Known about the structure:
Chain B: One of its GO terms (cellular component) is membrane. Chain A is built from 16 helices and two strands. Chain A is mainly α. In chain A, helix 3 crosses helix 10, helix 5 crosses helix 10 (240-265) and helix 11 packs across helix 15. Chain B has helices at residues 2-30, 37-41, 61-73, 96-104, 138-144, 156-159, 163-172, 179-184, 227-242, 246-275, and strands at residues 110-113, 120-123, 195-196, 204-205.
Amino acid sequence: MSFPWANHYAPKHPLMKWIDDRLPLPRLVYNAVGAGYPVPRNLNYFWNFGVLSGAALAIQIVTGIVLAMHYAANGLVAFDSVEHIMRDVNSGWMLRYAHANGASFFFIVVYLHIFRGLFYGSYKAPREMVWLLGLVIFLLMMATAFMGYVLPWGQMSFWGAKVITGLFGAIPVVGTPIQTWLLGGFAPDNAALNRFFSLHYLLPFVIAGVIILHIWALHIPGSSNPTGIDVKGPQDTVPFHPYYTAKDGFGLGVFLILYCAVLFFAPNAMGHPDNYIAANPLSTPAHIVPEWYFWPFYAILRAFTVDFILPAKLWGVIAMFGSIILLFFLPWLDKSPVRSGNYRPAFKKFFWLLVIDVLILGYCGGSPAEEPYVMISQLAAAYYFAHFLIILPIVSRMERPLPLPNSITEAVLEKHGNAAA
Amino acid sequence: MVRPIAFLAGLGFVFVLLFSLVTGAVAYISEPPAKTAEHEFHLHPKEVSFASDGPLGKFDRQQLQRGFQVYKEVCSACHSLHQVAFRDLKDLGFTDAEVKAIAKNWATEVPSINPETGEPATRKGTPADKIPAPYANEVAARAANNNALPPDLSLMAKARHDGGAYIYSLLTGYQDQPAELLKHFPDAKTPASLHYNPYFANLNLAMPPPLAADGQVTYADGTKSTVDQMAKDVSAFLIWTAEPKLEKRHATGIAVLGFLLIATILAYLSYRNIWAGIKH
């Protein structure tokens, strides 16, 4: 599409030609994920996670649609309807565990996909739009996952919904009316459960739509690669099919093995036991925690403990949303012309510090709001903001990058230590 | 323009966070949080193993039947099991006739209406019924139990961390309050209506020890019914009520992983084959 040497679609079968002449859908697929899309030949396994995210979304949509056939979004029966799925629906236990753990694995692969982008500078020109659309997908995923977790109407569903919608209550003046409007009441109840179900069914299709834009935007400049340098000629690329379809097929197999190992042998390991207790507005759980994939953000929310001009809760809400919003500005915060972290010695150290920092935030977010976890999360949250807003802009100006290879092919041949192509 | 604004925003967040940190640290040092009896004396569940543990675990049907007997003769006086139907008991190895008899002879009848007058009534259970609850509603349950509500047990083994071991530990964990606890936390003395149990989150439990003496249940299969044995059996039974499809899940999982392993090896080989000769 983007490179002049890309293969052109030439239908072999008369039927395909007939279709292609009238609706060029075969051509579209060929150019998007077929032999018509030239991809750098040196991608490593971290480039598998885009396809794996798509696979995870597909798993979620398929299992979710079938679950919706058996689930009842009504506060009186929602909890029991989930147990009905677990006990009386044929293979219902498998569907539900596949969906619940599918959400976790969706986030695992998306987080790896995001950190891949962070390390290799995939957010930089000319791929800013790919990055921005990716963040939109991430936000939609978070909303979808949050509302999905409410649907079983267990204790964590209910209290999680109460805490998260309560965040809007921190907005000055209009906060409480907004919270009431979002919930359709003063506390999560049937109205909230119904609208969450409706939106939980809608948003995955919105995500699918934005994924199409994400891939479309990707195909304008083409895929990035571990060296971060631009494709110079045909020798630097291979057609997506069969080369990367084969590699993604292998990656998908590994992904499914890990996913199914958890699904079948530890299906509740990533959930919270309290969600097997039916929602009870009169009994607050000892520790309200969201699902693990929100823990880093939950830690940032709870790290603000002092009223400083603004109430502590409002600081927490601003910082939590800010921690994601700032990623939208990343292409303009990190101005280093070198993309790949492999050639940026200082950036590389700070990158790994960020990875450790986010893991620490996650650990603190899943722990009770007591010392030492609060103090640790305050330090870790401070580093998170400092990393993106202060350190990256400075590093990108000060750092002296390592010399870049002249071309992708040269880098590949150097790695293999000989000159035979 | 983005970078100066970001720089200021970054400084702002960092400042407020460090300010919170210092304030919190000062408060922590000047007034360390008081230790609580729960924090010091709560115990994690005992180590105990069940036949259903592990990726190849299967239920011990004899044990599940014994556990069911303990539930029926002891627990069911106060605790419901409302996710479980009598027909589900066939999984424990009972025959159709046995299940029918269990349903028919259950101590509590199933709520119904009089077909002539429409007045509320009760009728004998059938295999299709869920196991009837001992109390008509929450108010009745609380009224009969000193205002404590005996929880439904269907999902108990999944609703607590390490659920099976938790139930076993709780049932065998009743004891006198340690003198050490009373010395350090005189306010935490167990009230007269409650019972000390270090495996319970707040140490004091409304339920009196349900398994009080060896031989409380006479097992049909002749197993010696020590308190330990009964506690283990009923825990195993409640693991089953919480996850009745566990065996099917394990068996399916082995088959799925076997298939995926072969498919992934093939995918790897075809990947290597396609890429052969292309350095990357």
